[in-house]
Amino acid sequence: MGHGRERVPGGAGVVARPVAPEWLALRRAADHQARAGAQGLLDELTGHLRDRDELLVVDVGAGTGSNQAWLAPRLPGPQHWILVDHDPALLGSVEADGVSGEIETERAVATVGDLAEVLPPDRDVVLTCAALLDLLRPAELDALAEVIAPAGRPGVPALLSLTVTGEVALDPGHPDDATVAAAFDAHQRRDGLLGPDAATTMAAALRRRGAHVELAATDWVLGPADEVLLRRYLDDRAAVVVEERPDLDSLARAWRAEREWQLQAGALTVRVGHVDLLSLPSDAPQQTRTGR
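Above: the chain sequence. Below: its structure as tokens.
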């Protein structure tokens, strides 16, 4: 990987999301495994990009570089990446793990609201993000959609990955799963956040702007081999339920205790719904698609 550079746009931020680097590290393997479900979207994207001499890839909400580590080896040719995140500490921890070859990387401390300053005005770009859309509010999502499919100008290809859908299936089931899920999803939509509505909202916004959009499921499937991540996921799910609905404290504690027993017995599996979204400009040649 080429030497890193950092620049700091002067515009006001829109999205500021405190994310612990240990959580990003913990989820990385599950994220990368889940993205196999979007191979068809990746094939379409690489086909669209095949004739470019060098790719300029802008990764929004880049965090510690997991998206780049997965995607860069799967894109063709020389690449220049701009990793964008509001948190300089996360960007500072990006390593070259899994990223090699003709790849240059720079870092920009910025948010969705700063993208107009981050994107070079005279270059074709590829826009990407992972686990970001559900953390946006409608105005922020519209700002991102306008960057991808701007009115009156050519759009850019975009691969927006690992957006939660709200679909969670635990096996074995539990009588309180629905109550837990309702409280959790309400928390995901707090203060106007799009939460599990984000992927469908973004798909609709891009289609209104004339882009060609396809979706593919990229669910986490967690079982006994994922005990550390699964325990953290259950802990966080129960804690969020109580934060959203303090009256459910006893229910959440009992639900979490039973899930812990199942986890220790190797008897618990969890499917957490995620979806990847591919957007191609309206003038892009269209291939046969199998996505939703």
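Confidence is low (pLDDT under 50) at residues 1-5, 8-17, 288-292.
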